[in-house]
Amino acid sequence: MSPESQHDIQQLEKLHAAHAALKSQVSKVIVGQDQVVREMLISLFAGGHSLLVGVPGLAKTLLVSTLARILDLRFNRVQFTPDLMPTDITGTEVLEEDKTTGKRLFRFIKGPIFANVVLADEINRTPPKTQAALLQAMQEYQVTAAGETHELERPFYVLATQNPIEQEGTYPLPEAQLDRFMFNIKVDYPSELEERRIVESTTAGLVPELTSVLSGEEIVNLQRLVRRIPVAERVVAYAVRLARQTRPVEGAPEFVKSFLSWGAGPRAGQYLVLGAKALAALDGRAAPGLDDVRAVAPSVLRHRLVTNFNAEAEGVDADTIVGRLLESVPDQ
To answer: Which pLDDT score, from 0 to 100, does residue 41 have?
Structure first.
């Protein structure tokens, strides 16, 4: 075995151990939401970004800030409002006078996007011009202001929240921007037992002590490890086939043609494979299988499928279609 392979195995074991430690630390603050935490970690170590969709009061903001604390990362929260400007996110130039020379110079003041974990709270509350300020940062890890390009520190992880029930006065994200998010993570209500535990713990005045698990440099190294994980040709073929079957063209399943006006693009196949790799790595496995692709498929695909009037009339949503696809698309 080569030294590189031995190093990768050690790193894989480290990620698996860190996964257990991260879940343990998060559970000190967050009751339940195990699947949400798992999917957030998958997208983080895959190097993607996530959209958290859930009604108010489900601790989405607390979950993100807790994750940033136990990962020893710089965290910034931006409350998206209708009057928010792009420079409020990226930063702005100010005119300053040098007291020694009397010259006036422009100085760039970095905005809240210059952090490791950025929470875009209620991203659909702000106009498209401001939403688009995140695009370059999410895709290219840099910000351009006044003709100068500023690199963002790695790791860089954007989590955006949306309220699915209140649509008055909102600006729905365009499909091109939705496609930049690796995952659309559904945050659901807790069970009755979990809700009782939430009420008991949050009204007792106890402040849990959190321990940092990974540093930013370690996370970047583990993200590179996930990219290096080998994947079988049949797993890649299945991920691509799954993404292609969402497109309402000739050869697609009849229910896809009937209920979808637009399907997933090539980025979906990339994220299906990356997500499967990250899931396998978190579980301590050296290679992903078809079940890993199936596990991440709902979160990868649900925001990339555009349903039509037929689907709305019959009460069919994107999750229903993804479920039917997973049953109908063959493994081979």
So the answer is: 94
Only one residue has tokens 């979160």, namely: 299
**242, 293 contact by CB (below 8 A):** yes
Q: Which of 21, 16, 68, 15 is nearest to 40 (CA)?
A: 68
The residue with tokens 């860190």 is 18
Q: What is the DSSP string of 137-202?
A: HHHHSEEEETTEEEEPPSS-EEEEEE-SS--TT--PPPHHHHTT-SEEEE-PPPPHHHHHHHHHHH
Other residues' Cβ atoms within 10 Å of the Cβ of residue 47:
20
Q: Is the pLDDT of residue 4 over 70?
A: no
* Residue 267, both tokens: 């980025």
Structure tokens of 27?
Answer: 């559970």
Q: Helix (H, G, I), strand (E, B), or coil: what is residue 56?
A: coil
Tokens coding 211: 């321990």
Model confidence over 169-221: pLDDT tens digits?
A: 678 888 888 889 999 999 988 889 988 988 888 887 777 888 888 888 999 99
Distances (CA, A) of 73 to 4, 65, 240, 314: 28, 10, 34, 45
Q: Which domains does the chain have, with CATH numbers?
A: 1-228 (3.40.50.300), 232-332 (1.10.8.80)
**∠ Cα 225 153 130 (to 5°):** 115
By DSSP bridging, strand 183-186 and strand 50-53 are parallel
- What is d(CA 95, CA 146) in angstroms, rounded to the nearest whole number? 13
pLDDT for 72: 86
Which residue from 247, 194, 265 is spatially nearest to 31, judged by alpha carbons? 194
The alpha carbon of 24 is separated from its chain's Cα centroid by a whole number of angstroms, namely 21
**Long-range pairs for 205-212 at CB < 8 Å and ≥24 separation?**
208/28, 208/29, 209/28, 210/25, 210/28, 210/29, 210/66, 210/69, 210/70, 211/25, 211/70, 212/69, 212/70, 212/71, 212/72
What pTM was estimated for this model as a whole? 0.91
In the numeric block, the tokens 């990250």 are attached to 278
